[in-house]
Design goal:
alpha+beta; 11 helices; single chain; DUF2971 domain-containing protein; transmembrane; about 350 residues; transmembrane helix; 5-stranded mixed β-sheet; membrane; DUF2971
């Protein structure tokens, strides 16, 4: 079974990150960890079903898509259309002579493109093949070592396993961020983007292959086993050079922290078992923000369900004190003991004997 076709999906308005209660400091520092592949909880991630020949076949497809005669002609005509803007002498001509120059040059350019396209294709194939060799030998291994970093989020806030696994069995919280303005890029993207864009994770049964001709590393980094599909995961990508703060941990691995834009945090949802002290500290912390996020708390719903309520509407949670119960005998059963005492009194007054006598005569 080959790789499934990746479906384009609109980016959700909010993405949710689940944390345990010990991470309440995130609202102080506004720094979050982008993890190395080796730190992810699935050791089967980023495994490729590929041979050198697969990579070379993929390279040929990419080269043909980039340097076929039609693609080269489109690039040439695109550059031709920009001539009046980029060439001052041509731009200074009146409109009619300018159009005549373009009409004369365009056929000549198109013929030259057709003649030269085999050369372009050969050169592009050579370049792409060399690039995929580097990809196979260097990039994949270096990505596993920490060249690529990942910040994982979920498209939903009401995921039961996520609250159990990543939010300390509801003792933590989840916060919703606007993905369009969460992480500011140190350098603008190729299209002028100022913020990092997340990619949706696709789920499939088999390991990804390169036979489809896709050579984008982000494709392989956003594929997981279909067993994880309940997470509805989206991922931000970064590199150690993009990090706001880098630390060396005692284990020898590197901790890469990225600045999260305060204005992107739109919601904070506290788990069912989140300690009131944690809720209060976070509440006090964000009250001073210019645009504080909405606060919600998880409450039980019918059956196994749960829902969220605005924190201001949530029922008060009394702080209970529990004494140590060392033995089962220390637990009291007042109603059961009262019933037993009543039975003993009845027996001592011969009520049971009289009841048997009446029923025997009847």
């Amino acid at each position: 079974m080959g790789r499934r076709q990746r479906k384009k999906a609109p980016t959700p308005e909010l993405l949710y990150k689940y944390y345990g209660s010990d991470r309440e400091d995130v609202f102080d520092s506004l720094l979050v960890r982008f993890s190395q592949l080796s730190a992810l909880n699935d050791p089967f991630e980023f495994l490729l079903d590929a041979s050198p020949e697969d990579f070379h076949q993929g390279a040929k497809k990419v080269a043909w898509a980039t340097a076929n005669p039609l693609a080269v002609a489109q690039m040439g005509l695109s550059q031709l259309a920009k001539l009046p803007r980029d060439n001052p002498q041509l731009a200074a001509l009146p409109i009619i002579p300018r159009i005549l120059v373009i009409i004369i040059v365009a056929p000549i350019l198109f013929i030259l493109i057709l003649i030269g396209s085999p050369f372009f294709l050969k050169q592009m194939r050579s370049i792409v093949t060399a690039a995929v060799d580097d990809f196979a030998k260097v990039v994949i291994n270096e990505s596993r070592r920490g060249l690529v970093l990942i910040f994982s989020c979920s498209a939903i806030w009401n995921n039961v396993p996520m609250w159990a696994h990543y939010a300390g069995n509801h003792t933590g919280f989840a916060f919703g961020i606007d993905p369009s303005c969460a992480f500011r890029l140190k350098r603008k993207g190729k299209n002028g983007e100022e913020f990092s864009k997340p990619r949706i994770v696709s789920y499939q049964r088999d390991t990804p292959t390169v036979r489809s001709g896709s050579l984008e590393i982000a494709d392989f980094l956003s594929i997981k086993m279909e067993d994880w599909s309940y997470e509805q995961e989206w991922r931000f990508f970064g590199t150690p050079d993009d990090a706001t703060l880098r630390k060396r941990l005692p284990s020898g691995s590197e901790l890469c922290l990225f600045a999260l834009e305060k204005s992107s945090i739109r919601e904070i949802i506290f788990g069912l078992n989140c300690p009131p002290t944690v809720i209060e500290r976070i509440k006090v912390n964000i009250e001073k923000w210019e645009h504080p996020p909405e606060l919600y708390v998880i409450v039980k719903d019918a059956g196994y369900g749960f829902k969220r309520l605005p924190l201001a509407q949530a029922p008060a949670t009394p702080i209970e004190e529990f004494e140590s119960l060392t033995t089962f005998d220390s637990i009291e059963f007042p109603q059961a003991f009262a019933a037993m005492e009543s039975m003993v009194r009845d027996a001592s007054s011969h009520m049971i004997t009289r009841w048997f006598s009446r029923n025997r005569r009847s």
